[in-house]
Amino acid sequence: MTSRKTLLAGFTAFSAAALTAGLCINSASAGPLAFAQMQAQAVTQANQVAGTLGAASGGIYLDRGKAVVNVTDAAAKDKAEAAGFATKTVKYSFAALTNAKNSMDSVKNVPQTAWGIDTKSNQVVVKIYDAASPAVKNKVTAAAAKLGDAARIEHRSGKLATYIADGDSITNNQVICSLGFNVTKGGQPMMLTAGHCTNEGGTWSGGDVSGAQIVQSDCPGADSGLLTRPNGTGDGAINTGQKITSAGTPTVGEKIQKQGQTTGGGSGEVTSVDESVNFDVGVLNHEFGTTAHTDHGDSGGPAYDGEKGLGTLSGGDTQTSYFYPLTLELEAYGLTLA
Questions:
Q1: Which family does it belong to (predicted)?
Q2: Which of 224, 272, 299, 321 does the annotation list as catalytic?
Q3: Does domain 160-338 have CATH number 3.40.50.300?
Q4: Sequence spans of domains, the chain
């Protein structure tokens, strides 16, 4: 077993870097790419610390770019602060929140609802939309009530919708979506988008690409679609020129960028992770919610943070846009970023 002395010595070795990263992130002079790189460093280091806290870890989140480590007891607080991180003492461990979220996943056939983990509030946030039927509202409310203050209910106006219309991106001449990421599989160039788009079938085209065939389409459950790239060019970059060199896991509080053919570029913040979203097409699992503004035609478009790709757009409402994690898509299909 690693001694407390050894553990604290290890923390001290990178605590100065952690503090420096936090200070740099708050600097108004940091450019977007530099901010993204420092934000990613803070998340990596905070996750390393949280990983040593075991059952006392409440997860992490970002507050204006600075990583905060949630803890459930004084010993964990001391360890995290010795490593240079701000802490927040919370009631529920991340494992407990995960169990609470998983209990909500047992509630089936409840369209127009969603739930996921918000580490900033140390709760599972349960969203119920006006478009949900009275029976669905009652069913989800009752399930959330069983979790006590480990969950909070948010009543949302409007309707959840997968975005699959308008815009001018990749198309099968029936519906229009957006290209997420250029990828390769076994050395062959391919295109990654949303599964609810490729579920529509057909042959796809866009830009200098034509005759793209569907390799795989997964929705609901996941929301991933893979297309061949029989011609045309395209490296691993957003259409702004921003290179995408890796895939990363989103963190609550993380500042992100997005692109889509209807709304173009924009920014937002991650508000929830591991969210189960009950669209009318079915349940989409492991989504992450953001404050980014998107609309019809943006489906499949990318969310990213600097050089780190995060996910492809599924849909949302007027307040929240949901993305399916890029890490899961690459793993499921055996892909490499172009």
A1: Belongs to the peptidase S1 family.
A2: 299
A3: no
A4: 4-89, 95-153, 160-338
